[in-house]
Design a protein that fits this description.
The structure is a single chain. By secondary structure, this protein is of the alpha+beta class. The protein has one domain. Helix content is 42%, strand content 28%. The protein has a four-stranded antiparallel β-sheet with strand order 1-2-3-4. It is rod-shaped, with a radius of gyration of 34 Å. The termini are far apart.
Length: 150
Amino acid sequence: MKCTSATCPERGSARTSRGFAAIVAIFILVVLAALGVVLVTISSAQHRESAFDSLGLQAYQSARAGIEFGLHQALRNASCAAATSFAMPGALSAFTVRVECASTAHTEVASTVNVYQITATACNRPVCPGTADATYVERQLRVVAGSTAP
């Protein structure tokens, strides 16, 4: 049986083209939606990373302040307390610092040298070191300093 124009639609007719165009449109929408999801995921990850970079910097500056406190106590006040904790003021108020100090005395030639090992741990919890979770940030610095005894 031969096809006539009444029984067989011609190739590329409007009906066939409309079906193909609908499939292409759906495919393009799915690809664009997937691209949008990927872009939103990448953007939110970058925002989280930026926030944690900022928190890490604040924790580092808090630990530096703890080291400065410990050095002042050891070298100026000749005091080496086993452990001291304090909350940071101002812009660093979310951080707590724990300063630990250990000292030893050594005799060199005719003088005594006191050697202080100071460790400062800063974290964004009320007690350092704190319980680690998804929002926990901690930085620890250690310094060794010496002074001659008067």
